[in-house]
Structure formats: C-alpha cells, structure tokens
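Class, discuss our next protein.
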Amino acid sequence: MVFTVNITSQSLSGLSGLLNIPTAEITSDGRINIGANYLERNHLKYAGGKKDVIAPFVTIGFLPFLEVSIRITRQLNYSGESHVMDRMFSCKIKFINEDNFLPVVALGLHNPYSTDPRAKHFTATYFVLSKNIEINSFINKFHVTLGYGSEIIEAEDYQYVGLFGGVSLTIFKSIEIMGEYDAERFNAGFRFTLFNHIKLLGGVMDFKHFSGGAAVSFVL
C-alpha cells in the first residue's frame, strides 16, 4: 500500500530530501518552508573546506509539479574585510506521480546558471525516484530513494555526481530516521516534526561530523 500523507521535509540543501540527498518528492503547491542549516567544513568543497557555514533558505511549492528554493551560504568566523555570500537558486520538477506501483520521479537543478562558472558552487543536475510504503500505526512509512547526478553544467564544484540513494523510517508521524549515500560518503540522520509546522534536522556526515538545521513550514 502506498503511503498517501504528504510530509515532505527539507534537507541540508533546502529542497525536499533526506539528510543531504534530494528525494523525488516536492513541497505541496502553495506551501513555503523557511529555515537555516549549519554545514560542517569537512564535507564542503565551498571555501576549500576551511570554514563551517550557515545556509538560510526559502523553499516554495510553486505548482503541483514544481519546487523552487533560494539559499544563501555564509562562511562562519570569516576573517577578511568583506565576504561575498554564495547565492544559490534550485528547483525540482516532478514528472511522474507516485501510485501503488510507480515511484515518483523528478529532475533537479541546483545553481544551474551564472555568468562566471567559477562562482557556481553546490551545483547539481540529477534524476531521482522515490517510493513510500505504509507499514503500520507505529512505523508509519518506509521510504527509499535512488538517483543519479552528473557534471553536465560547468561549475566550480558539484554535489551528487554519480549514484546516490537512501532509506528512512517514519515513526509516530513525527520522527524520521535516515541513512543515505550521497555519491561521496555514507551519512545518517534524524528529523523531528513538531506541531506539524516545525522541522528539526540533524545528522552525521561520513558518520563523523554533525550538520543540521531547522525550518518552519506553512501554507501561503
């Protein structure tokens, strides 16, 4: 049986996903998610991996098949005179809706355009599919995601190049336990949903270093 309740949640990228990887699910039409994530330096190509960063984002379900996001990435403890923050536009386009047999399928783009490719960070181009299965009243949902990303767009650095995927279990409709491979490393994480509007995300990248954040979700 397909799990029919839409409880998509933001990943470290700002778009719907597990801990670090995107899923094929998108935020429902008219819903807005506002939050910020802390990204630990050891797993960043941005800034040469020398600084932790904070990444505020706004993500909107714009149409029944489209999710768009704007994110700003700022280095913490920056010691220079000025700091030009990285600005990233992302979107995810859903092509196939999930049913009893088919997974949901989507195409995602992170930071697809800039006049200077050297200024494009966290760039990603990927196809991804996801499937949800209802279990019981205790373990509400088993989720599996599989995707593939490429370096087709010229950029300074990339995410999700190659095969990536992950699984999660949702318990009591408010606790999500996640494991994933983001095409570079294995990660584990959790997500708490409070009062149906607040999402708390946390996890360990490569099972070593913590990254996480929080978001508030509401309908426009």
